[in-house]
Design a protein that fits this description.
By secondary structure, the protein is of the alpha/beta class. The chain contains 24 helices and 26 strands. The protein has a six-stranded mixed beta sheet with strand order 5-4-16-15-14-6, covered by helices on one side. Bound molecules: ligand MGD (2 copies) and molybdenum atom. One ligand MGD binds next to β15.
């Protein structure tokens, strides 16, 4: 019998982890996957895989894998295809590519957001490279992850590098995790490592979330339940308590911030718009007291007062934001409110404090391909790609178009490579699929994936890709992970699957661009090229072959980082990179800007559409949020039944809301609003606020003949309404009704 061999590799889907995987292989078969250990990590943070990581082979090496290229034969979306050869597929792609370019112009071509291969050599980026060489394409800005938190952070600090290294939490006296569930939604290896340590040494941790999340349990934390999309009201009331009780750091606000009180409002602006005037009610007659906020948030006034006092008194204290509270209508405002509280308590620029906002810290450069400029300058916000298909040529700056006054064409070709945002992960699936079904709108769609996903079903050509176990790549963790990984090939490719680079090179050949596209390199030589390029900036990296054999490199000897130390100490000599050089609590740019919905110059609560206070609640009384479950990475792993046990797909509903509807634990229920309807199982739990329901995002869309989704796929209920400033996705802001299956409704 052949001996067991261990191949070192790392994950590359879009969970922040990018964990270390040791594949135990014999005779070309994977026996099992193991992962990092504290012993192997030595002084460093262990990069351990979770249940998903240890089940990768059971997700990816399955019999439902796509094995050959497919050409659509039925209506678009019908799922009817016939197998074709790679040569036919490449010919068809090249001829449609040229036809659409020559008929509608290069800007009619679009590469969809896709994170299935979140590595340095990335299918969607490679497609953009080829399109840029061929006259250009319509690009996007933003992500589905962080549009509001990034825009709001940059608005106030002028940069998104607001993070300190996570080891500084060991100096915090109090940690607030705001809309953040890192025990389940993995951001990186370091976050939970340091939160656990902080907790072990006795630091109180408070989680603010509509659900009692895994993080509350894992860290034995306090839980403050809050109605979704009302965070800014809680923040306003905390700010009110801190200010009226004199607990704020006036010296810091005077030195570093713009617009806290009427004295620090820029000249020419209306003094009644300062933060203090708003909090005290000078502008609208409503003081933002804890009682006022209780009615909106559902958090008792006493709890709010107590939280404000504790946060202001514990110096230093860290208010750490996840992305859950910003994936909402007016999601920008919950971010700005968190930053305001960090400033008011002087926790910026302090080890153990936290500037709030994005919290990014990039200590090391990332590997990347050479940059090819895109001749098309216009860009759209990513969440508005469906608008660009429907009526692109009517879109202007008011719709978030940048780089041009307006678009000059609709989108006519979409390449959707290693992603499920064409259907499953985008909002309002019923509207999106109706649009995609119309072949006079978007004329040509190519999808490359491992499975016939709901997105792939809407393609004209479906191509079989290769999973990370079958090909090589360079992997980077999210910002705070401080390591570089390598995908080593573990098993042979399945069927006729190919890595996207190889067929894109053949399309390039048909366009007369092979040499320009490949620069004569194959995948391995590009990976080596990127690595050597990086090594010039990061000389501590080992030689390529040694790195490849290890599968991972952990950076050594990094000093702790504290964001904004210099700026806070002396903002005259070290201004913040904002127009005023100060932290802009009040934004002159916003005050003079134009937005598609009201957007105020200061952090403050705005009642959002489909929020807790929307009169639409008379018809759809329950708020519905999604979250990122441990059971999946977005939609990836949904077809792996072994992981279903970890967190079965079901609707969280409060027992009182369930009783009012005659619903019991385990009942099949229908969840619906004007956009769609889905079926799932009810889970009655006091671990969610009354009036609120929750359903993990990412379940595979499986409609019946009436269009009711049978698999609990939340995006049949979500809206495409963009947020006012970032034009971001508010996929957690929804109003719905729930009924027991079979009951009227
Ligand atoms: N297991 C797993 N980990 C992942 C991913 C995954 O798919 N699976 N995806 C990765 C990616 S790409 C991303 S962008 C991140 C996502 O990271 P996040 O966006 O932070 O994750 P979410 O689960 O959407 O939200 C975090 C928490 O916010 C809560 N929340 C929702 N609405 C509100 C609100 O209005 N107010 C407050 N205070 N809390 C609210 C949710 O209940 C949830 O517990 O996770 C990454 N990590
Ligand atoms: N309602 C709601 N919707 C959301 C979110 C939410 O919180 N709520 N979160 C949003 C966020 S933060 C994000 S980042 C997006 C993520 O959305 P996507 O980027 O679409 O992520 P996945 O759903 O994981 O889709 C990845 C696809 O790539 C495929 N794949 C995996 N590995 C490979 C490979 O090696 N090669 C190829 N060719 N294919 C591969 C998988 O089968 C899967 O179909 O979803 C967004 N959608
Ligand atoms: Mo994301």
């Amino acid at each position: 019998m052949a001996t067991e061999q261990i191949i070192h590799t790392t994950g590359r889907n879009n969970c922040g982890g990018r964990c270390i995987i040791h594949a135990h292989v014999r005779d070309g078969e994977i026996l099992r996957l193991t992962t990092d250990t504290p012993e192997a990590a030595g002084e460093g943070v262990p990069l351990c895989a979770c249940a998903r990581g240890l089940n990768y082979h059971k997700t990816f090496l399955r019999s439902d894998r796509l094995t050959q290229p497919l050409l659509r034969t039925g209506e678009r979306g019908s799922g009817q295809f016939r197998p074709i050869s790679w040569a036919e597929a490449v010919d068809c792609i090249a001829s449609e590519w040229i036809r659409i370019r020559d008929t509608y112009g290069p800007a009619s071509r679009y590469v969809n957001y896709a994170t299935g291969v979140s590595a340095a050599f990335r299918p969607n980026q490679l497609a953009k490279r080829l399109l840029a060489l061929d006259g250009g394409f319509l690009d996007y800005y933003n992500s589905y992850s962080t549009p509001c938190i990034e825009h709001a952070t940059r608005l106030m600090y002028g940069t998104d590098q607001t993070g300190s290294s996570r080891d500084t939490w060991l100096r915090s006296r109090l940690i607030l995790l705001w809309g953040h569930n890192p025990s389940e939604t993995v951001f990186d290896a370091t976050t939970m490592f340091y939160l656990r340590r902080a907790r072990q040494q006795g630091t109180p941790i408070i989680v603010i979330d509509p659900r009692r999340s895994d993080t509350v349990r894992a860290l034995d934390a306090e839980w403050i339940p809050i109605r979704p999309a009302t965070d800014a009201a809680l923040q306003d009331a905390m700010a009110y308590v801190i200010y009226t009780e004199g607990l704020h750091d006036q010296a810091f606000l005077n030195r570093c911030c713009l617009g806290f009180d009427p004295e620090h409002i820029p000249s020419g602006a209306d003094g009644t718009e300062s933060v203090v005037s708003y909090l005290l009610g000078h502008s609208d007659g409503v003081p933002k007291t804890p009682r006022w906020a209780e009615a909106i948030t559902g958090v008792p006034a006493e709890t709010i007062t107590d939280l404000a006092r504790r946060f202001a008194a514990a110096k230093p204290a860290a208010l750490v934001q996840g992305y859950g509270a910003q994936r909402h209508a007016y999601g920008e405002q919950s971010v700005r409110g968190g930053i305001l509280l960090a400033c008011m308590t002087g926790n910026v620029g302090v080890a153990g404090g936290w500037a709030s906002g994005t919290g990014y810290v990039n200590r090391h450069a990332l590997p990347h391909m050479p940059f090819v400029p895109n001749p098309v300058r216009a860009q759209i916000p990513v969440y508005r790609w469906t608008d660009a298909v429907d009526h692109g040529s009517a879109m202007t700056a008011l719709d978030g178009v940048v780089g041009a006054e307006r678009l000059d064409t609709d989108v006519k070709m979409i390449l959707n490579l290693a992603g499920n945002c064409l259907v499953n992960q985008h909002g309002d699936i019923n509207r999106t699929t109706a649009l995609l079904r119309d072949t006079t709108k978007c004329e040509f769609i190519v999808c490359s994936d491992l499975f016939l996903t709901s997105s792939a079903r809407f393609a004209d050509i479906v191509l079989p890709g290769l999973s990370f176990l079958e090909c090589e790549n360079l992997t980077m963790p999210w910002e705070a992970g401080d390591f570089l990984g390598y995908n080593n090939r573990v098993v042979d490719p399945i069927g006729a699957g190919r890595f996207e680079y190889d067929w894109l090179a053949e399309v390039a050949e048909r366009l007369g661009l092979r040499e320009a596209f490949t620069e004569g390199r194959d995948t391995r030589s590009w990976l080596r090229w990127m690595y050597e390029d990086l090594r010039r900036k990061e000389p501590q990296l080992p030689p390529f072959e040694a790195f490849r054999a290890q599968g991972v490199y952990r950076y050594q000897g990094d000093a702790p980082v504290v964001a904004f130390q210099e700026q806070c100490a002396d903002p005259e000599c070290h201004p913040f990179p904002t127009p005023s050089g100060r932290i802009e609590l009040y934004s002159p740019a916003v005050a003079s800007g134009r937005f598609s919905a009201p957007f105020p110059p200061i952090p403050r609560y705005m009642a959002p559409p489909e929020g807790a206070q929307d009169p639409l609640r008379r018809r759809y009384p329950l708020q519905l949020i999604g979250w990122h479950t441990k059971r999946r990475c977005h939609s990836t792993h949904d077809n792996n039944p072994e992981l279903e046990r970890l967190d079965p797909q079901r609707l969280w509903i409060h027992p009182e809301d369930a009783a009012a509807r005659g619903i019991q634990e385990g009942d099949t229920v229908e969840v619906f609003n004007d956009r769609g309807r889905l079926r799932t199982v009810a889970h009655l739990t006091p671990d969610i606020c009354r009036g609120v329901t929750a359903l993990a995002q990412g379940s595979w869309y499986q409609p019946d003949e009436n269009g009711t989704d049978l698999n609990g796929s939340i995006n049949v209920l979500t809206s495409l309404r963009p947020t006012p400033y970032a034009h971001g996705n508010a996929q957690h802001t929804n109003l719905v009704e729930v009924a027991k299956q079979g009951s009227p409704g």
